[in-house]
Amino acid sequence: MNLNTIADYCLAYAYYYPLFMSYLWMCGGLYYRFHWEDSGGRKVDDPPAIADAPPVSILIPCYNESEQLEETIRYVFEQQYADYDVIAVNDGSSDNTGEILDELQQQYPKLRVVHLKHNRGKAVALKIAAMVSKSEFLVCIDSDAILEPTAVSWMMRHFIGSPRVAAVTGNPRIRNRSSLLGKIQVGEFSSIIGLIKRAQRIYGRIFTVSGVVVAFRKSALQRVGYWGMHTATDDIDISWKLQIDHWDIRYEPNALCWILMPETYGGLWAQRLRWAQGGVEAALTYGGSLLSWRKRRMWMVLAEYLFSIVWSYIVAIILCLWLIGKFVTLPEQYMVPSLVPGWNGVVLAMTCLLQFMVSLLIDSRYEKGLWKYFFWMVWYPLAYWMINTLTIIVAAPKVLFRSSDPTGRWESPDRGVRDEK
Amino acid sequence: MKNKDMIINRPDLLKGSQKYTAMGLTLFFWGALIYLWQPAISLLAWALNLNVFYEHMVVLGGYRTFVNLLINYATVIGILAGALLLWARINQWRFSGLDRRVGIEVTDIDAVCATFAVNRDSVEEWRECSNLIVDTDDEGLVLEVVVIDSAPKVSDFLTLE
Question: Could you say which of A109, A218, A344 has the minimum Cβ distance to residue B107?
């Protein structure tokens, strides 16, 4: 590619950034898989034993979750971990979540229930639960998530003997796969999110824990002031706060948690926009404080995010210039004569395929038969970058120019296509 | 827990509009992917006529562009991957088996009480309860706590907004 004009530079960046990031993720993912993930040949249902297992509280914030709660609570009490209790927080729900929790408490004596009088958002619900928990270790899951019976044991092994580990994030697996959106999110969590987390663990810092399944050390939370209340995504915020305070965050792919994802376009858009807003907020809030040598381990995470923001805007500019060029004669340096990628496109398509193969290789350990989603997944890396572009373009000005802080209150989008009972 | 028990796959429950949109999007993205493969597909078709293939790709050196491109990519990917793996190895060599940083003392109940601006006796009591109603302000500071440990009926206490 000859770089003669501004448009050429933009095209080069638009093309090379996702291409080379993809290889970096694949390389990091493969290294992590074969170096760290084998766990002595143990399978998901056979976690290493923990001597003198410290007590754990499983925290479940619930807001208008009457349809999902019973299933979540039933499975959470199948945990094989030796010493745990469960604290469910009814976050001022306007449906009958509170009553359902009270009924479930009769059934499960280890279930503790906290009713917040008003809806205050997930961060407040978690903070109150942390306050009333007697345990030093807190496992937080969403109220529509189903925790694999061995998940707590897998996460807890990282805290034992590693006093600087503040959090361990688990491996969310998509349950609902009826529609195209469900199927492609299976691909996304497997071939993109999982790979990125593994690669980021090789840098030494991760962009975010998965809020749907994450374990925390309470002392670390106490030091950083617990979860932020005025942020679109509490999980991104807490991840940055902990790592800036020099805590370590680990990824435990054996800690499986089955989750429901939106299967409507509106629901998916709302969720992705919120994630993008959370990322922009974190970069703005903490970016400045990272300019010290002591915070250098976060530089890669920040750089990766800033590059992706710039990339999104460059792609948008290229498309605009190309479109405008169809109707108006632009100066030569701004001309985008064609979007045809030629052999570069072949390399990009090969990369999509390769990324999928690598993720299949890594993920087949946790789920057999992922290849069945091949037809739906193989093009997903293309769609991923497009969704990324759109959400960042909308989210960045929303965060930069908003007049008040977000309340931290949000309701889960749709939970996919399910048989109505 | 069996994975298959967790998976919900009920395409029969999709509405017609959902099915058609999905079909449209799938076609679009498969089209986009095939579009990216276009030079390779053209080449394959071209290769079926081997004389022309030989003349253009070998004699006239048509393969060079692609080979050069691959060499450039392989170089960049090699450098990136090498740097990442080297970094992983350096970290493993420096930190393997040791925690350079000292552990931090486990947070005691007094620190938690100070953060939440509540007194120790109350927190100790709440930690033993199995059912509570908590009123907080917007910032999450506790305003009031009602203990309803036995035979809880939240509807007796809460006026939902």
Answer: A218
Cβ contacts of A376 on chain B, cutoff 8 Å: 26
3-state secondary structure of B9: coil
- Most B CBs within 10 A among A86, A108, A128, hence the mutation to make, goes to A128
Which phi and psi (to 5°) does residue A173 adopt? -120, 135
Q: Let me know whether A269 and A334 are in one domain.
A: no
Separation in Å, CA of A323 to nearest CA in chain B: 18
Pairing of strands A84-91, A56-62: parallel
What is the amino acid identity at position A172? Answer: P
Report helix, strand or coil for A258.
Answer: strand
**Based on the domain organization, do A284 and A302 belong to the same domain?**
no
pLDDT tens for A123-180 read 999 999 999 999 999 999 999 999 999 999 999 999 998 889 999 999 999 998 888 8
pTM: 0.85
Q: What is the signed CA dihedral for A132, A134, A136, A138, rounded to 10 degrees?
A: -50
State the pLDDT at residue A198: 94
What is residue B96's three-state secondary structure?
coil
What separation, in Å, do the N-terminal and C-terminal C-alpha atoms of chain A show?
58
Whether B154 has its CB under 8 Å from any CB of chain A: the answer is: yes
User: What tens digit of pLDDT does each residue of A73-95 get?
Assistant: 999 999 999 999 999 999 999 99
Domain range enclosing A113: 56-290
Residue pair B69/A350 in contact (Cβ under 8 Å)? The answer is: no
B161 pLDDT band, cuts 50/70/90, is very low
Q: What's the number of domains chain A is made of?
A: 2
Q: Are residues A183 and A271 in the same domain?
A: yes
